[in-house]
Specification:
With about 525 residues, the chain is α+β, with helices and mostly antiparallel strands. The protein is built from 8 helices and 25 strands. The strands form 8 sheets. The chain has an 8-stranded antiparallel β-barrel. The chain has a two-stranded antiparallel ribbon with strand order 1-4. The chain has a two-stranded antiparallel sheet with strand order 2-3. The radius of gyration is 52 Å and the shape is elongated.
Length: about 525
């Protein structure tokens, strides 16, 4: 037994000369950790105070790009390209609306000067003709119905013209005998009213000729009958009114167009780029924080693959549409992405030591009892205790960290829709304008992308989640169409459209709602039957 030694001395004597040698892989691990730590500290110290000062020429370019980005985005509170399109459409409508009523003064067809061709002149004498009193020109009578108009040419040098002029026989208004107006023949057959060679007379083929008022002695034997003369085709080519004026069939007696009142069928094929914005609401205050997070992490996004076709029925100024369309709604979302480097931490342990302290010392003086010398003292230590002295520390050194980053992706929701719309349209020459509204019945086809988990620290794939999507969606539609007719059968059009979901994308059992508001422009072709 080692008398007089405390515990520290005992451990010191026992462990003196003891040596611990770690294995090689332990030292390699320590070196790797130290190298990584030094490498990270190098980059941290290198770029901690690093600052980039852009030149003055960079800021105008940034401002232009930001302005263009804001201009192409739809926002109710800022001026953008959609407001430009709407303004242009309204100005176009205001410009063309004054002529839509059809009250524009139209030059009467009897003011048209016919082309006279000498080689086709008929020199055979013909009987004098009777013309109505409503003739507006001394040179000709133009029929109300162009399809029935015939032209007869005669030489003013013929005996019929000369004899009629000499006798000054009257041409009687056969259609209105009560107020007959006698017009001297020389008012019609004079060289001053015609070219030196020919003179043209046009009249209605259905107007009867009053041959009884013309004496037989004034008649000249004609080698061509009146039926043969009337069958002669006119020299001026006549373009059908249906091609020249698509909305007219003819002109009435005062020169106004007769408007087509028949219904029309047509089909449209179109492509529609859109910009989409999703909105969120909470049905329970417990989910307010999640809805706020979704709003902050979600922004507008463009979609381009939407297209469709529709069948149109128009009656007078009303138009009805029903069609089939593929529609893709999109949203831009920032989802969390967590990256972990290395081990959580490493611990360095340094040992500590101490010594005993005697709390109390008791002694008994036995000088008179134990010996003749009476000088012995017995010492008794009843309560010794160990006092700890901390000469080192326990150090926790973290050589890695959890870094949360965000990744921006595009969520895509595809629908097969049946849009039904009705509206009012006005026409002016080759342009037509239509203001329409309706509803679209949508059927969910697919949902691709990611969403944020309720915790907010990770993301969930839309394809693998069990989110209760509604399979049928209803969307409110408003549109303003501008059509340009290339031909009577074919037209091109552009139509700004505003869309708004009426119901949420999710079932009612989910305590949040998500709806889309979209704006786009249809570009398409229309074929008219």
């Amino acid at each position: 037994m080692n008398d007089g030694l405390n515990i520290e001395d005992l451990f010191k004597n026992t462990l003196e000369g003891h040596k611990v040698e770690p294995k090689t892989n332990v030292w390699n691990g320590i070196r790797r950790k130290l190298w990584v730590r030094e490498f990270r500290l190098f980059f941290r110290n290198s770029f901690e105070n690093f600052k980039i000062d852009p030149s003055a020429s960079v800021w105008p370019a940034i401002v232009r790009k930001l302005w263009l980005y804001q201009f192409l985005r739809f926002s109710p509170s800022t001026f953008n390209i959609y407001y430009v399109g709407l303004t242009a459409a309204l100005l176009s409508g205001i410009y063309f609306l004054p002529d839509i009523s059809g009250n524009k003064e139209i030059t009467a067809s009897n003011n048209i000067t016919p082309e006279i061709k000498k080689e086709n002149t008929i020199t055979k004498p013909i009987p004098p003709l009777v013309v109505p009193s409503n003739t507006t020109s001394n040179s000709a009578l133009i029929a109300n119905n162009t399809g029935e108009t015939r032209k007869i040419e005669t030489d003013v040098k013929t005996t019929s013209a000369k004899k009629a002029e000499q006798n000054n026989n009257a041409i009687v208004n056969f259609l209105n005998k009560g107020t007959a107006k006698n017009i001297p023949a020389n008012k019609f057959f004079t060289k001053q009213q015609a070219n030196p060679d020919n003179f043209l007379v046009a009249f209605n083929a259905e107007a009867p000729v009053n041959n009884t008022v013309i004496s037989n002695e004034n008649r000249q034997p004609a080698e061509m009958t009146l039926e043969n003369i009337l069958s002669i085709k006119p020299h001026l080519p006549i373009t059908p009114f249906k091609e020249t004026y698509p909305d007219t069939v003819a002109f009435n007696v005062i020169g106004m167009p007769i408007i087509i009142e028949n219904a029309l069928w047509s089909v449209d094929a179109y492509w529609m780029p859109m910009i989409n914005q999703s909105s969120f609401t909470s049905k329970n205050t417990e989910f307010d924080s999640y809805v706020k997070m979704r709003k902050n992490q979600t922004s507008q996004a463009f979609s381009f693959p939407s297209f469709g076709a529709s069948v149109n029925f128009s009656y007078k100024n009303w138009i009805f549409q029903v069609g089939l369309a593929y529609t893709q709604l999109t949203e831009k979302i920032r989802v969390p992405n967590t990256v972990t480097y290395g081990n959580p931490h490493s611990t360095i342990y340094n040992s500590h030591h101490g010594y005993f302290i005697n709390d109390s010392i008791g002694f008994l003086n036995l000088d008179s009892l134990l010996g003749p010398n009476h000088d012995t003292v017995w010492i008794y230590i009843p309560y010794p205790r160990w006092n700890v002295v901390n000469s080192s520390l326990i150090i926790d050194s973290y050589d890695s960290a959890n870094v949360a980053t965000y990744k921006e992706i595009i969520n895509k929701y595809s629908y097969l829709e049946i849009p039904v719309m009705a509206g009012y349209q006005v026409k002016n020459n080759k342009f037509s304008f239509a203001l329409k509204g309706g509803i679209a019945f949508g059927f969910l086809m697919s949902a691709n992308g990611k969403t944020i988990s309720p915790s907010g620290y990770n993301s969930l794939n839309l394809e693998n989640t069990n989110l209760p999507f509604v399979q049928t969606n209803f969307t409110l539609l408003f549109g303003f169409g501008i059509n340009y007719h290339l031909t009577y059968k074919l037209a091109i059009f552009g139509e700004p459209v505003i869309r708004k979901n009426l119901n949420s994308m999710f079932e009612n059992r989910l305590k949040i709602t998500q709806k889309f508001q979209s704006g786009g422009v249809k570009f398409g072709v229309r074929y008219i039957f």
